Amino acid sequence: MDRKKLGLLAVAFVLLVGLMEVAVLKIGSLDFPVPGRSPQPAVADQPGGR
Questions:
Q1: At CA 33, angle to CA 31 and CA 37, rounded to 5?
Q2: Is pLDDT of 48 > 70?
Q3: Of the four listed, 2, 15, 47, 49, which is most buried by Cβ atoms within 10 Å?
Q4: For residues 24-50, b (16+ Cβ closer than 10 Å) or e, as one string?
Q5: Per the structure, how many domains does the chain have?
Q6: Nearest-angstrom CA–CA distance, 25 and 6
Q7: Rounded to two decimals, what is the model's pTM?
Q8: Looking at the domain assignment, is residue 22 inside a domain?
Q9: What band does 40 get if pLDDT is binned at 50, 70 and 90?
Q10: How far is 48 from 23, CA to CA, in rounded Å?
């Protein structure tokens, strides 16, 4: 493989990894509402429970 082709392949790989990271950050920031059975939140508003 010549140097020019290898360089282009390296640049394409870096761009691909960068695009995948941006996609993961966008997907991770989405808020999916999940229906729950409990009327109380999973995280307590006040320490100590109730």
A1: 145
A2: no
A3: 15
A4: eeeeeeeeeeeeeeeeeeeeeeeeeee
A5: 1
A6: 29
A7: 0.56
A8: yes
A9: low
A10: 39
Q: What is the pLDDT of residue 29?
A: 79
Q: Is residue 21 situated within a structural domain? A: yes
For residue 23, what are the domain limits?
1-29
Six token digits for residue 21: 């990271």
Q: How far apart are CA 5 and CA 22, in angstroms?
A: 26
| 3 state DSSP class of 47 | coil
Give per-residue pLDDT as tens, 3-37. Answer: 999 999 999 999 999 999 999 988 887 777 777 67
* Interatomic CA distance for residues 36 and 33, integer angstroms: 9
Residue 47 within a domain:
no
In a domain, 48, yes or no: no
User: Which amino acid is residue 31, in one-letter code?
Assistant: D
